[in-house]
Write a structure and sequence with these properties.
2 copies of one chain form a homodimer. By secondary structure, chain A is of the alpha+beta class. The first copy, chain A, has helices at residues 7-10, 12-22, 69-87, 106-122, 174-183, 193-203, 209-218, 231-242, 257-266, 270-277, 292-299; strands at 30-32, 39-41, 47-57, 90-101, 127-135, 140-150, 165-169, 223-226, 245-249, 283-287, 307-314, 319-323, 326-329. In chain A, the strands form 3 sheets. A 7-stranded mixed sheet of chain A has the order 8-10-7-11-9-12-13, sandwiched between helices. In chain A, helix 5 packs across helix 9 (257-266) and helix 7 (209-218) runs antiparallel to helix 11 (292-299). At the A-B interface, helix 2, strand 2, strand 3, helix 3 and strand 4 of A face helix 2, strand 2, strand 3, helix 3 and strand 4 of B. Strand 3 of chain A pairs antiparallel with strand 2 (39-41) of chain B.
């Protein structure tokens, strides 16, 4: 089998076998991995199951001309693990469902699978199930992840209360700036390190599993969400689910330095990228004021990941952005449809 | 919102909300259903988790002109539940990931979701997660199901031994005959009841969850698989995974009466449909001879579902079809790629 063959040349069974061969031996909690009608996992004693699914669709979420397929594979798993991170869950397993254009090269298939398996290895998320079919249109890569968490430590969107402060991990706007740089046709080797970091964030977002787990176990957060569609959307989702309002302080939003630099070069607004660009996959938490000290102490174990207070929840409904003295509507996040 | 609107008119958030509204209140084991970053399930004490994923792609697995969308929704869940049935697992929850062409009508979206939820209700498989995105090409409906089973009762493909007899549930070839009838342009109201049953099997296959569970608990089967790709493929998969050979008796294959009738009208071979047509979603089991009596006693609890001995596993490798005195290669199943 030559990698210059197309996946249609190989066929479904050979592709499944090829996928199977690339999957390393699973960890002990996997009773039965790939290759049967279904996979079997041993449960984690005393923990609940956490489940989520998300897909990447060619020409909606990525373009093959712009994003290497190993990054597509990596990202398809990353966006799902990010949802587990937001709930404070540990990852246990992943399932992959692929719809492939027949013209896709076997070498591209390999790259995509290897990208996914790289993150699967780093995050200890064994791939236990796979399904491959032909697509008469775009490449569709659908991932489901299974996690586990202790019953009373699960963080939802709906537990925030008026007065809680909003904290965000890392830097925002990086992913949107990275995408803008790629779309501008800027050559990758010529990007400075800050902007290269933005491109890396767009292509290989890092799911904040450790931060989410530590925050949940610290019992200091009342609500949490991952920023798949921008800070504005995340704040709105927490406010809506928690039946409160929110104010975000424009001056406090941690805009990624690369986003700031690329915005200056292109006369763009980096704050818009941070608020509405999406795909940063940082975490947003609501923290009661009396838990601030414990929460910040817990974040010391985040292995260098920074945390920034960006606003607070309010009794009055409505979601606002404060710029200096003025309140303006926060706007909405990135819409994939 | 008028059902004559397209899904692109509505947008992602409104569609998710619309999906959410159609989902009934979940059973007690669902700690957190749709609407957050992930769903949360309480584990079943002493049971292992069984996981599988499968997708239906427009113009590969179905055509919108031929199959009503409520049947597509139903079938997308059914094919996954059939995998759980093959393992002897009970269903616990489902997740749905949709890639929708923007021109799909909201009424079509509703029909598809309602078709899936009908089977979800009947099979007690709560829908706990959903993800919706746009597709620039075909409609893709991806489902992941979670089941549970007692540790030593799980039935795999690989436990068969030489001498075990092969038993199949129900009648075969119905789905392929139903599809052939639809493709011929035969008007549905004019189909006789046997052929109408074939169309129903093609559109709304019945996952054999009860039969699978009872067979697994009876501890009389050494291997099992669901017939998604025809009897030939199922026998080959069990033989390969069990490192044995197999002989299928052509005269013993239970060909559906409707398949026989339509084959006679169209000069087709109904045995080919049964062996290679696929999509019957019946179960195939390997049963040691000394367990035959107990196995058949257990099948009395299958609520009228019949069981037929169709062949046996052999020490010599190779998978054969016996027609009268002659052995011929069994051929392969339906290939989706």
């Amino acid at each position: 089998m030559s990698p210059s063959q197309s996946v249609a040349d190989l066929g479904e069974h050979a592709l499944i076998a090829r996928l199977h061969e690339r999957v390393p031996p699973p960890p002990p909690w996997v009773v039965l991995g790939m290759g049967d009608d279904a996979a079997v996992l041993a449960p984690e004693r005393g923990e609940q199951l956490v489940l989520t699914t998300d897909s990447l669709v060619e020409d909606v979420h990525f373009r093959r001309a712009l994003t290497p397929l190993d990054a597509v594979g990596y990202k398809a798993l990353a966006v799902n693990l990010s949802d587990l991170a937001a709930m404070g869950a540990a990852s246990r397993a992943a399932l992959l469902s692929l719809a492939l254009p027949g013209t896709l090269l076997v070498s591209e298939f390999d790259a995509m699978v290897d990208g996914l398996l790289t993150l699967a290895g780093v995050s200890r998320t064994p791939l236990v199930g796979g399904n491959i079919t032909r697509s008469p249109g775009p490449l569709v890569i659908d991932v489901t992840v299974v996690g586990s968490a202790r019953a009373r430590r699960i963080v939802t969107r709906g537990g925030g209360r008026a007065g809680d402060e909003l904290y965000v991990t890392g830097w925002l706007g990086a992913s949107a700036a990275g995408l803008a740089a790629l779309q501008s046709g800027a050559a990758r080797p010529e990007l400075d390190s800050d902007l290269a970091a933005c491109v890396a964030r767009y292509e290989r977002p890092e799911p904040r599993l450790r931060a989410g787990l530590i925050a949940a176990r610290s019992r200091t957060v009342t609500a949490g969400i991952d920023l798949s569609d921008g800070l504005a959307d995340g704040v709105r989702q927490i406010a809506t689910a928690s039946r409160v309002g929110a104010i975000v302080e424009a001056g406090d939003v941690p805009v990624h330095p690369g986003a700031g630099a690329w915005a200056a070069r292109t006369s763009s607004d980096p704050l818009t990228w941070a608020l509405s660009g999406g795909e940063d996959y940082e975490l947003l938490f609501a923290v009661p004021k009396r838990r601030t000290r414990s929460f910040l102490a817990a974040t010391k174990h985040w292995a260098g990941l920074q945390v920034t207070r960006v606003g607070h929840l309010t009794r009055e409904p409505g979601v606002w952005l404060r710029r200096g003295e003025r309140l303006e509507p926060l706007g909405s996040g990135f819409v994939h449809f």
